[in-house]
Amino acid sequence: MPQDPFEVFVEEHNHGLAALEKMERGAESLRQHGYSAEALRLIREANEFIKTEVKAHNQKEEDALFPVLGPYMPSPSIIDVIVEEHRELLDKEEDLQSLLGSLLG
């Protein structure tokens, strides 16, 4: 039986938040203890999830959810804010990818 689409969005969102928490744990470890393979692993895994799964989730929101909700929102709306946050996250992910590439050769 198909799952409720809103439940899917919520579940995907929660997985994205978990990836960001993983990245924060890795970054905090680097700040407190310096380089470790484990900290870098956490950051790389989280970044990989963000650049694939979170990016796909954000695109589904923009393609399927926001057009349905948009007519019911005042202008400018929270949707505009969220779309801008999606763009900022993508930019930061690309910056991190570049930095990881430089660090890892």
Quick structural gist:
This protein has helices spanning 5-33, 37-69, 78-104. It has 105 residues and is mainly α.
Characterise this structure.
The protein is mainly α. It contains three helices and no strands. The radius of gyration is 16 Å and the shape is elongated. The N and C termini lie far apart (46 Å).
Tell me, rounded to a whole number, the average pLDDT. 90
Shape: elongated
Helix content: over 70%
Count of helical regions = 3
Name the poorly predicted regions. Answer: none
Note the run of SSEs as H and E. HHH
Strand content: under 5%
The first-to-last residue Cα distance is 46 Å
- Which structural class should the secondary elements be placed in? mainly alpha
Q: Please tally the β strands and state the result.
A: 0
- Radius of gyration from the alpha-carbon trace, in angstroms: 16 Å
Main pleated-sheet profile: none
How would you describe this structure in keywords?
105 residues; 3 helices; elongated
What's the layout of helices and strands?
Layout: H1 5-33, H2 37-69, H3 78-104
